[in-house]
Amino acid sequence: MLDAWGGTEVVPVYPSDIEIEQGREHLRCYQLNENGLFRWAAACCRSPVFNTQPGFPWAGIPAKAYTNVRADALDGLGDVRCRIYGRDAKGEAPFPISSKIAFRDMMVVLPFIIKGKLLGKHRHSPFFESDGKTPTVTPEILGSR
């Protein structure tokens, strides 16, 4: 899941474009704290599958979910457009990484988010009830262990 520097490539998709065809009963939801990001995983194989936030037109899918099935699955997406949280990297990566989230990173992500909000891509999410806020699976708060 992690690369040599401790990072993970994440592919952004709109929640309304995601369809869970089978295995919904294995879906689990985790949060690091009560206000944290929703981290979805498949309990059957202990694999992380999505990161989401309620009412937000963005779901992050680990690139490995695609490339473990077909090595060339992401070739059509082009180069990685931004890398963030380099402050947490292990060692010195051979490519530029923002320490946190830089302005240039926001300029890459914002058009996707604005378009998604305008088109209602955060609605009809397989992760949240019709109110758009209540997760379909009760989250386990990992920080409370």
Using brief descriptors, characterize the structure shown:
6-stranded mixed sheet; Metal Binding Protein, Guanine Nucleotide Exchange Factor, Chain A; globular
Describe the structure.
The chain has 145 residues and is of the alpha+beta class. It has one domain (10-144): Metal Binding Protein, Guanine Nucleotide Exchange Factor, Chain A (Beta Complex), CATH 2.170.150. Helix content is 14%, strand content 18%. The protein contains 2 helices and 6 strands. It has helices at 64-67, 103-118, and strands at 10-13, 27-31, 38-42, 47-52, 59-62, 140-141. The protein has a 6-stranded mixed β-sheet. Strand 3 (38-42) and strand 4 (47-52) form a beta hairpin. The longest helix has 16 residues, at 103-118. The protein is globular, with a radius of gyration of 16 Å. It starts with 9 loop residues before the first strand and ends with a strand. The model has no long low-confidence stretch (mean pLDDT 89).
Mean pLDDT: 89
Reported CATH architecture? Beta Complex
CATH class category label: Mainly Beta
Largest sheet: 6 strands, mixed
Q: SSE order in H/E notation?
A: EEEEEHHE
Rounded to the nearest angstrom, the distance between the terminal CA atoms is 24 Å
> What overall geometry do the principal axes of the alpha carbons give?
globular
Approximate strand percentage: 15-25%
Report the count of strand segments: 6
Count of discrete structural domains: 1
Strand order of the largest sheet: 1-5-4-3-2-6
Which value, in Å, is the CA radius of gyration? Answer: 16 Å
Low-confidence stretches: none
Count of DSSP-assigned helices: 2
